[in-house]
Structures are given as structure tokens and as C-alpha cells.
Write a structure and sequence with these properties.
Layout lengths: L5 H12 L4 H24 L3 H8 E7 L8 H13 L3 E11 L2 E10 L2 E13 L2 E11 L12
Parallel strand pairs: 1-5
Antiparallel strand pairs: 2-3, 3-4, 4-5
């Protein structure tokens, strides 16, 4: 479990700012924001895992979650049972996009408990999501401040 996104956010900022041309980055960011927003809607709101992956994810998708194999079809097979079920609920809190990178920060819950805070990090190339990392943190029953996750 990784607590927070400090090092990941720093790495993302450095990777996207190194040598990027501002005008190109702005146009790329806009295109990628539209892509990731549409993906998030189909995946989290409509729970259409196959439709989201078939439309927005490259077949050779690289997966950094150690429990899921590389490839679009492997992701569909692993994620469909979890994300298609009616007892799971997902609330996208924010979508952050900079050039070829995007982060979807969300709250995932189920009937079984308070769920977790999730940051899905994507890399986009040629109009498709090509790579994914995730950071997951279970929601604790008690916290020392009133705003620990969102």
C-alpha cells in the first residue's frame, strides 16, 4: 500500500514537463482529457468494462498492477466481475491530465464496507490508453483529520 501520491506526483510532473512544448502540450492535454473523461464515464458510471476497454485502450496495454496481466483482454477479464457488479459503487472525485498522462482519483465502495481511495494513473499514446498504474488505500474507520482521502 502506498500512502499518498507525493513521489508519484513528482515523477509525473517531471516526466511531463521535460522538454514539452507548451502549445503542443495544451492541445495534447485537451484531447487526452476528453478521452479519459469518456473512458471514466463508460467504465465507472455505465459499468461497461468491455466497451470502455475496446474503445479507449490499446490491445498491447501495459499493466503495472501485479495482480493483472498485460493486455486489454486480460484487463477486461480481471476487471469485469469487480466493476460490473451492482454492489460496487464508484465516485470519480477528479480527473487530472497533463500531456500524455492522466490521473482518475475516485472513491470505490461496496455493500461490504467503506471501500477505498484509488488513484488510477494512465499514459496515453496515439489516442489510446497504453499504460496503467494504480494506487489503492483502504478507507480507515477513524482518522485524525476530517479530510484524509478526498
Amino acid at each position: 500500500m502506498i500512502r499518498g501520491l507525493g513521489p508519484a506526483a513528482l515523477a509525473l510532473a517531471l516526466a511531463t514537463s521535460a522538454g514539452a512544448h507548451p502549445a503542443n502540450n495544451c492541445a495534447e492535454t485537451g484531447r487526452n482529457r476528453a478521452l479519459v473523461t469518456a473512458f471514466a464515464h463508460r467504465f465507472y458510471d455505465l459499468r461497461d468494462v468491455r466497451g470502455a476497454f475496446d474503445r479507449y485502450v490499446a490491445p498491447g496495454y501495459i499493466q503495472h498492477n501485479p495482480a493483472i496481466a498485460d493486455g486489454r483482454d486480460a484487463a477486461i477479464a480481471a476487471l469485469s466481475p469487480m466493476f460490473s457488479g451492482r454492489n460496487a459503487h464508484f465516485e470519480v472525485k477528479r480527473i487530472i491530465v497533463d500531456g500524455p498522462y492522466a490521473v482518475i482519483h475516485l472513491h470505490g465502495t461496496s455493500d461490504a464496507g467503506p471501500g477505498g481511495a484509488v488513484a488510477d494513473i494512465y499514459r496515453i499514446a496515439h489516442g489510446r490508453i497504453v499504460e496503467h498504474w494504480d494506487v489503492l488505500e483502504p478507507i480507515a474507520p477513524a482518522t485524525v483529520n476530517p479530510h484524509p482521502y478526498f
